[in-house]
Amino acid sequence: MPISAIAMRSSARTSLLTIKGLGKFTHGRYHIPTMSSSPKPVTENSARDWMLLAQDIKAWGRALGLQQVGITDTELGEHETHLHNWLAAGYHGTMTYMERHGVKRSHPDELVPNTLRIISVRMNYLPMDGASAESVLQQAETAYVSRYALGRDYHKVMRQRLRQLASRIEHVTGPFGYRVFVDSAPVLEKALAERAGLGWIGKHTNLLHREAGSWFFLGEIYTDLPLPVDAPVKNHCGDCRACIDVCPTQAIVAPYQLDARRCISYLTIELRGSIPVELRPLIGNRIYGCDDCQLVCPWNRFARLSAEPDFLPRHGLDGPLLVEVFAWSEQEFLARTEGSAIRRIGYECWLRNIGVALGNAPSDAAVINALNARRDHPSALVREHVAWALGRHTQ
Ligand code: B12
Ligand code: SF4
Ligand code: SF4
Predict the structure, then answer these.
(1) 367 contacts 393 by C-beta, under 8 angstroms
(2) Cα–Cα–Cα angle for 177, 180, 182, rounded to 5 degrees
(3) CA nearest 52: which of 70, 31, 69?
(4) Closest residue by Cα to residue 350 from 276, 282, 277, 288
(5) What span, in angstroms and rounded, lies between the C-alpha atoms of 147 and 306?
(6) What is the 3 state secondary structure string of the chain?
(7) How far is the CA of 105 from the centre of ligand 2 (A)?
(8) Protein residue whose Cα sits closest to atom 2 of ligand 3
(9) What gap in Å lies between CA 325 and CA 314, rounded to an integer?
(10) 141 CA distance to ligand 1 centroid (A)?
(11) Cut 0.90: pTM above it
(12) What is the pLDDT along the chain (395 residues), one digit of tens a residue?
């Protein structure tokens, strides 16, 4: 998922915040000194207070609509080696932002000096309403948009909640050092969440939880507060390899190792140029992202739906006809993807992706007419994918 440079610096706000569902808040429970920006030491006496604060942070997070909150330190151990190996193998493809920033990605305290703890959170996104993923994937004339992108851009939704959570903490501790991240900086989000006890990194490389599956986003607050850390949970993948076997492009090249260059999510969202010809037939009708490895995962039987109105499908994107979305003008694309993560791929890649899906759709007059209408498109990228798609229908 693309990086958008977003980070929040602590401010000196001390006003009482009213957060829905939390009721009135009191300081009386702790003896943590307030109104100081100096590091807060842990003494024998204060250890209990930090523990109480950690408990409250988790409760405030849940009241803010974050389904789970965990806390970890800055040690990422073997994850750093895995990241280096992944980069050395070139699995990141054109996502050069994954190579930048030296060791900041695996050393949180290099990214934000004085960071002692990471408050890691997850937020469910599978919407209550909408066409079922399986039925859309089975109808080759419809467009499949990955479930995370059907509603409002999650970066905005989560960042706002994390800021509210930080303000709530600040009300107790006084000004403290923190920064809020949601896929917005060199942060190894899944590794941090795994260490904070939010789940384990599965063989498909997503984070999943026994009681929550994997349909959730991650976000973090880096902080200098010496909060007590949580224990990681056990890995429950066992002998299962359903995600590896189902992957349409065989992108999971070994358990826990993803060659992003083959992943449909990368090909349709991150890649800006031409989609490798040999992978195009395997993409099927997936026009933005892919969920197959999560749909097949047995732990997603326990996934909870999101109650967030923001994540409800917009503009019928949960299963529109390919020919309909291919006919959108650039203005329509911009209007209908306003506030959505989809907008970031741009109109050209939107048409490129739908062109590929139309090449994979059953041959009929509507499909061929739609492709013919775009064969002289000003973009060479679009023309090339349309020509490929038309070629599939004349074979
Ligand atoms: C780059 C990226 C992508 C890339 C690469 C994915 C990847 N696996 O790295 C692409 C574009 C393919 C992608 C796709 C998707 N992404 Co993405 N992506 C990211 C991003 C920006 C960085 C991920 C990263 O650090 N990769 C580095 C590599 C090294 O990590 P890794 O492959 O997971 O490897 C780790 C482990 O597998 C393990 N490991 C590696 N090798 C080995 C070997 C052995 C032997 C062992 C035991 C372990 C091991 O250690 C590694 C380090 O922790 C994060 C946001 C963030 N800042 O963290 C979102 C993020 C991971 N993506 C997310 C989502 C939702 C998706 C999609 C589901 C979207 C979609 N529906 O299309 C797909 C899922 C595809 C998949 N199967 O992973 C969510 C995941 C939430 C969750 N529940 O886990 C994140 C966290 C964004 C967010 N804030 O919520 N993504
Ligand atoms: S998102 Fe799709 S293409 Fe990527 S690893 Fe999962 S199943 Fe394979
Ligand atoms: S499908 Fe099986 S192997 Fe893959 S993440 Fe889920 S439990 Fe683990």
Answers:
(1) yes
(2) 160
(3) 31
(4) 288
(5) 11
(6) CCCCCCCEECCCCCCCCCCCCCCCCCCCCCCCCCCCCCCCCCCHHHHHHHHHHHHHHHHHHHHCCCCEEEEECCCCCHHHHHHHHHHHCCCCCCCHHHCCCCCCCCCHHHHCCCCCEEEEEEEECCECCCCCHHHHHHCCCECEECHHHCCCCHHHHHHHHHHHHHHHHHHHHCCCCEEEECCCCCCCHHHHHHHCCCCEECCCCCEEECCCECCEEEEEEEECCCCCCCCCCCCCCCCCCHHHHHCCCCCEEECCEECHHHCHHHHHHHCCCCCCHHHHHHHCCEEECCCHHHHCCHHHHHCCCECCHHHCCCCCCCCCEHHHHHCCCHHHHHHHCCCCHHHHHHHHHHHHHHHHHHHHCCCCHHHHHHHHHCCCCCCHHHHHHHHHHHHHHHC
(7) 23
(8) 240
(9) 13
(10) 29
(11) yes
(12) 433 332 332 332 222 233 333 333 344 566 665 444 555 666 656 788 899 999 999 999 999 999 999 999 999 989 999 999 999 999 999 999 999 988 999 999 999 999 999 999 999 999 988 899 999 999 999 999 999 999 999 999 999 999 999 999 999 888 999 999 999 899 999 999 999 999 999 999 999 999 999 999 999 999 999 999 999 999 999 999 999 999 999 999 999 999 999 999 999 999 999 999 999 999 999 999 999 999 999 999 989 999 999 999 999 999 999 999 999 999 999 999 999 999 999 999 999 999 999 999 999 999 999 999 999 999 999 999 999 999 999 87
CB of 202 closer than 6 A to ligand 3?
yes
How many angstroms separate the alpha carbon of residue 260 from the centre of ligand 2? 9
Atom 44 (ligand 1) nearest CA: 256
